[in-house]
Specification:
This protein has two domains: 2-46 and 149-219 and 311-368, FAD/NAD(P)-binding domain, CATH 3.50.50.60; 82-144 and 222-307, D-Amino Acid Oxidase, Chain A, domain 2. Helices cover 31% and strands 26% of the residues. The N and C termini lie far apart (43 Å). The relative contact order is 0.20. It has eleven helices and 20 strands. The protein is globular, with a radius of gyration of 20 Å. By secondary structure, it is of the alpha/beta class. α1 (12-23) packs parallel to α7 (148-161). The strands form four sheets. Strands 6-7-5-15-16-17-14-18 form an eight-stranded mixed β-sheet. It has a six-stranded mixed β-sheet with strand order 9-3-2-13-20-19, with helices on both faces.
C-alpha cells in the first residue's frame, strides 16, 4: 500500500496535521499511532492554552492557536471543553517582576490583551491565594484551557471523516531511505508502506523516529507529573502558574483541580511512572499557595513526557538534507496549545511548499548554524 503522506504520531499534533491536510484536499494520507488516541503526552498534559510567553515565536503561534480554538468545537463538530477562563502568572521578587514587564510589553505589541496586576488586585480577584512574596501578576482573559483528550479525539475524528486513515496500535519500526528521500516505513504488524512524504509528530519519541530516517534532532524527553483532586464547588476560572514554585493548577469543568509540578532536576528519560516524591512536593507547594486546599482529597496522579529542545521551543519544518521529511516536534510540554497553528503551517508546507506564516525562528537551522539562540523562560 502507498500513502501520499505518512504521519508518525497520533497525538494532538499528528491528528491536527492530518485534519488540516484533508482540509486542503488531500485524501491519501495515514497516521501511524503505536497505541490509542491521546495515549502519549497529549492525554497526560494539563490542558492549558496561553499566549503569555517570553519568546515572540511562541507568542505568535499561541495567538493564532487561540483564534482557531475559539471556533474549533463548531469546525470539528465536537465538544472539547475549551474555556477562556484566563491565565494568571505570579511573579516573586524583582527579577521575575522585571521579566514579566518585558514579556507583557512584547505580548501587548503582538495584540495580546494582557496586563500587570498588583497584589491588591490579585487579592481582590482571587482571595483564596496566599500572596506572601508575590510582587505582581500577569493576567490575560483570553487565555484558557481545554480537555486535551477531547481536543485530540476531535481532530482525529474529523480527519477520518475527511478520508484520512488512522492506524492505531501500529508502531513504526523502521524507515527506508534512498539518498535524500524517504521511500517507505515498516510497522509492528510486519507491513511496509510506501510513502511520498513522512511527517515526524512522534512527541516524546521524536528523536528515535529521526534516527530511523538517518538524521539527528536535539530533542530529549523528560518526565513531568500531575494529579487531580476530588470535585469542588467552582472557585476559580483561570489557570494559575507560579514559576517560583514550579507549579500550575486549574479547575476543570467537572470541579476537580488539576495541577502539575516541574522538577528542574528530573533526568532525561522515557520514564512516565508516578512518584511519591512528586505527591509530597506537589501537596506542599499547592497548600502553601492555596491554604484552603489542605483537606482536599487527591483522586489520582500520573506522569507524561515533555519533549524538550535546547531552547524550549518547537522545531517545525523540513530537514535541509531531506526532500520529503517534515517535523513538528520538541514542544517542551506545550504541544496542545500550539497544535492548531502548527498544523496549519505543516499542511501548507506539504501541499504548497510554502506558508504565509513566518516560522523561520523555529526551524532546525537555529541549532545547526552555530549562532546563539534565546531560550523560552516561561516554562513550568
Amino acid at each position: 500500500m502507498k500513502y501520499d503522506v505518512a504521519i508518525i504520531g497520533g497525538g494532538v499534533i499528528g491528528s491536527a496535521i492530518a485534519y488540516n491536510l484533508t482540509k486542503q484536499g488531500m485524501k491519501n494520507i495515514a497516521v501511524f499511532e503505536k497505541s490509542y488516541i491521546a495515549s502519549g503526552a497529549t492525554g497526560r498534559c494539563g490542558g492549558g492554552i496561553r499566549q503569555q510567553w517570553a519568546s515572540p515565536e511562541n507568542c505568535k503561534l499561541a495567538i493564532r492557536s487561540v483564534k482557531l480554538f475559539e471556533s474549533l468545537d463548531d469546525e470539528l463538530d465536537y465538544k472539547t471543553e475549551y474555556y477562556q477562563g484566563g491565565y494568571l502568572l505570579l511573579a516573586y521578587g524583582d527579577d521575575e517582576m522585571h521579566q514579566f514587564d518585558k514579556n507583557v510589553k512584547m505580548q501587548r505589541n503582538a495584540g495580546v490583551p494582557v496586563r500587570i496586576l498588583n497584589t491588591s488586585e490579585i487579592k481582590s480577584m482571587y482571595p483564596f491565594l496566599n500572596l506572601d512574596g508575590v510582587s505582581c501578576g500577569a493576567y490575560c482573559p483570553t487565555d484558557g484551557h481545554a480537555n486535551p483528550m477531547l481536543v485530540n479525539q476531535a481532530y482525529a475524528n474529523a480527519a477520518r471523516r475527511n478520508g484520512a486513515k488512522i492506524h492505531l496500535f501500529t508502531e513504526v519500526k523502521s524507515i527506508k531511505r534512498d539518498g535524500n528521500r524517504l521511500i517507505s516505513l515498516k510497522t509492528s504488524d510486519g507491513q511496509e508502506y510506501e510513502t511520498g512524504c513522512i511527517i515526524n509528530a512522534a512527541g516524546g519519541f521524536s528523536s528515535e523516529i529521526a534516527e530511523m530516517a538517518g538524521i539527528s534532532v536535539p530533542t530529549r524527553s523528560q518526565r513531568h507529573e500531575a494529579l487531580i483532586t476530588e470535585p469542588l464547588e467552582h472557585f476559580m476560572d483561570p489557570l494559575i502558574i507560579s514559576f517560583h514554585h514550579h507549579i500550575y493548577f486549574r479547575q476543570t469543568m467537572h470541579g476537580s483541580v488539576l495541577m502539575g509540578y516541574g522538577d528542574a532536576n528530573e533526568p532525561y528519560s522515557h520514564n512516565v511512572e508516578s512518584s511519591i516524591e512528586f505527591l509530597k512536593t506537589m501537596s506542599r507547594q499547592i497548600t502553601s499557595l492555596v491554604p484552603g486546599m489542605k483537606k482536599v482529597k487527591i483522586v489520582r496522579q500520573w506522569a507524561g513526557s515533555y519533549n524538550m529542545t535546547p531552547d524550549a521551543q518547537p522545531i517545525i519544518g523540513k530537514m535541509p538534507e531531506l526532500e520529503n521529511y517534515y517535523q513538528a516536534i520538541g514542544f517542551s510540554g506545550h504541544g496542545l496549545m500550539l497544535a492548531p497553528a502548527v498544523a496549519e503551517i505543516i499542511a501548507d508546507l506539504v501541499t504548497n511548499g510554502k506558508t504565509d506564516y513566518d516560522y523561520s525562528g523555529l526551524t532546525i537551522e537555529r541549532f545547526l548554524s552555530g549562532k546563539d539562540f534565546s531560550t523560552e523562560k516561561a516554562v513550568v
